[in-house]
Structures are given as C-alpha cells and as structure tokens.
C-alpha cells in the first residue's frame, strides 16, 4: 500500500513537474514575446520621437520664414506708406501751386482786358484829337 501510494505520488510529482516545466516554458515564451513587444514599442516610440523632432524643426523653420516674410512685408508697407504720404504732400503742393497760377492767370487776363480797354479808349481819344486838330 505504501509502495503503491509512493508510486502514485511519484507519478503525480512527475506529472506536476512536467506541468511545471511546461508552465515555465510557456512563461519563458510569453516573457520573450513581451520583451520583443517591448523592444518593438521602444523602436516605435523612438521613431515617433524622431518624427516629432523633425516636424518641430520643420515647423520652426517654416515659422522663421513666415516671420521674415512678415517683417519684409511690414517694411515694404511702411515704405509704401511713406511714399504715399510724400505723394499726398507733393499733390497738395502742386494743387496749391496750380491754384496760385490760376489766380495769377486770372489777374493777368483782367489786367490785359483793362489794358486793352484803356488802349481802345486812348485810340478813340487820339482819333478825337486828330479830328479836332483837323477841324482847327
């Protein structure tokens, strides 16, 4: 009975040891699979971090270009605004000069008209004087 029980326990122990070995093998395989998955995820994270770094670099470069372009456009706008102000000032001066010239022309025309009228009167007086001296 003891021998049978011992034999039975040995067989059970062997079965349990076999199950333990199988479980250890499966555990080792799972650990290996998990380690592979961890390494794969680490590579993926590394790749994504690299892509993120590249994207940040590209974005910063793009932003720098945009900032430079904005500065350039701002300078251009300021220059054009100054030119516009100068042109408005020049236009104002030209309009004043034009107005002054128009007034001068108007006055000269009035003077000419007056001189023409005076000349006409003087001619009439000369003719009158000639007639009077001819009758005398």
UniProtKB/TrEMBL annotation:
Keyword Coiled coil: yes
Alphabetized InterPro entries for the sequence: LEKR1 (IPR038799)
Record flagged with keyword Coiled coil: yes
Keywords, ordered alphabetically: Coiled coil
Protein name, as recorded: LEKR1 protein
Coiled coil: 63-97
